[in-house]
Each structure stands twice: as C-alpha cells, then as structure tokens.
Amino acid sequence: METISDADIRRYPETNPRINEWYRTLKPTTQRVYTRYLIQFERISHTTLETLLTKATQREIDTLQIRTLIINTTSQLSNSIQVVTDSAVRKFLRYWNITVPPTPIKYEQTEFYRAYDKQELNQLLSYLDKPLEKLYAIICAESGLRANIPLQLQWRHVQDDFNNRTNSIAIRLDPPFYKGKKKNGYAFIGNRARQLLQYCIEQKLISTQPDSKLFPFTYDSISKIIRRAKHKANLDPKIEPIHGLRKYTEAQLEATKPAINERYRIMIMGRFKDIDAKNYSPRDFDTLRPEYENAYSYIDHMNTAPEKTQELSNKQTELQDTINKLNQRITELEQNRKETFQLTGGLFQTMYTPEREAELFQSWILFRQLLQTINKNTAPLPMNPLTDPRSPHNTATAHHPTEQ
Prior knowledge:
Helix content is about 55%, strand content about 0%. By secondary structure, it is an all-alpha fold. The chain folds into three domains: about 5-95, no CATH class; about 120-305, Orthogonal Bundle (hpI Integrase, Chain A), CATH 1.10.443.10; about 310-360. It is elongated and about 110 Å long.
C-alpha cells in the first residue's frame, strides 16, 4: 500500500467536509491519529467514508453490512490498529446518526510491556544525540504526560514557574487538556528538565515567545527517534519505547517513601474521573508541588540513592527549623536589649565598645535577670499609721468633729 504522507494527512479533512465538521468535536491529537487510520481504511476498502455515509443515509447499505466491511478491511492489520480504526469509523457514522451494531473487535493484550528502570533510562538518553530529543524524553519521564502532550507544549505552559521559581516547574495546560477519556494530570518537571530547558533557550533551540512550541517534532518523527535510540542501547523489547517513560514516572511515584497520598498521585498522573475534574483547578498545583518535590529524588534519573537523598533532605529541613527558632530567639533578645537600654537611660550604650561587646552582652543578661528578680520579690512597703495619708490614724488628716 502507498505510504501515507504528512501532506495526505493535512489535505484529508480539507477534501472531506463532513469529516472536517466531525473533527471539530475532537482533540487535535485524536484527529491526527484517526486521519492516518481512516486514510488506510479507505485505501484498503476502496470506499471513502463520505461515500459510505451517503449510502447508509440513503439506505443503500445497512449497518450490519458496514460492520462486516470494517471487520474484513481491518482483518490483516495489527490488533491495536484494528481497534482504533473500528472506533474511528463508528464515531464518524454515529456523529451523523448512523449506529453500527457491536463489534467483535476487542483489544487483546498479548504481551506485558513494562517501564524503564533508571539504568535503562540513562542508557536510552545516552543514545539521544540532540538536546531537544533528550529534553522530550526527560519531560516525559519527569512529568508522566502521555507521549503526544509534550509535542503540544508551548512556552506559556511553563513560563510562570520557569521565570519565578527555582525548583519544580508546573506544566499549566489549557482547560480542555484536563477533560475526556485520556485526560492529563496536574504535572510537573524537575531540575534536570529545567537545566536542559535553560540550555536549549541559551542555544536558541527554544523561543520564549508565549505561543512558541517547545518541540519541532511530529509524533511519528519522535517515535522513530526514540525507537532507534532504544534499539542502539539494546534494551529489553518488553519496554514500550515512549509509553515506558510515562510508566517510569508512575513506578517512581509509587516507590516514593514516605508514600504519596493516593489522591495526589492520581491527580499528577491524570487518572481522575470527569466528575472529579470539575473540583480541580490550577490552585491544586500548590497542594501537589510538595508531594512532587518529595518524590523527585526517586524520579530524578541521575539519582541512584533516593533514600539517602530523602534522609539528607529531612535533616536539612530539621536544621532549617532549628535555625528559624534561633533567629526568632535572637529577635526576641534584641527586642529585650532595646527595652533595657531605654530602661537604663542608655547606660550600656555609653559603655559599649566593640572590644567589650561580649562582656557587656553578658552583663546585660545578668542585669535583666536581676531586674526580673527584684520585680518578683519586692513587696509593697507597709503603711505607717501615723504618717501615711491613707491611714485614718494620721493626725494631720484625721476628721475632728466640731465641738459643741
């Protein structure tokens, strides 16, 4: 069969108006996938979909015959292509109110495909020669996004965190990306992707204009590049070339200790239901970021000892807490010092020299303690009944009734 070119794919909706109308209800990536298989279906069956729709509308062909046509046309194709082609033809006809009976074509998992491990991922990256190729693979492995989504990323999707933060970068997709059967997660990328992104910008491989795409690849071209690198690295055939990168992310999130909250992991990977999607918003990036950064030592393909990194990170956090408490105590002592200087009329200030700083500071502490002791232990003086004006026995103020 004749090769399907990029030009064929571009022209297809333009020359098929009813397919073009239906396409407006689909995501761009779905349109591209469907187009390839619909062209293939038409070439094998020698029937265009527009003609098939016309015949079905005029009842020149019934829906059972359409089902048989789909089965016979796809019989020599791989199971996965059969499933996608069958789905595409049915959805097109259903859009125009033609419902085809249930099909026997079902997805059959004949083999289990697994994720890359860290060593295998590093081997794959070593055979990706160009920075943008490496960046694509690293973004897939750090974000868990499905293979086609990084190809649609524009600078505006990452610019906020790239410009305003120094740690993880939230990938802020447009609302439609979070809907549908294969929705996207509230994803992040970490320091490795950030460093390579910075390098690509410096080398003018990536533009920082908001609508500029990060990658120049089509899905077919990057798929060939990744498959070729995987083949050169002589990696296990049971690793899915691109989807294995998403599986890598999920495996590392599951391996993280302490474990990530299950709900947060589902949000990052985009496995939530449509009804839940209504309750999520970009504000959730702030909730998810600490979870992602906690897991990043596991996700980082260059970190071979994530548990040790995690332990050091926890100790660093504890030390920072101690430093914060000490800074707070220093602030309190400084405030007390100012109050004491005011109390003593600046006595210590006039005695201060840099050489005597430690001595005066210690004297100030002792003086402060002495004042507190005096205030605590000093009781009011007893009242003198003869001289205190408050006493009724004071002869100067006592009331003498007028003599009769």
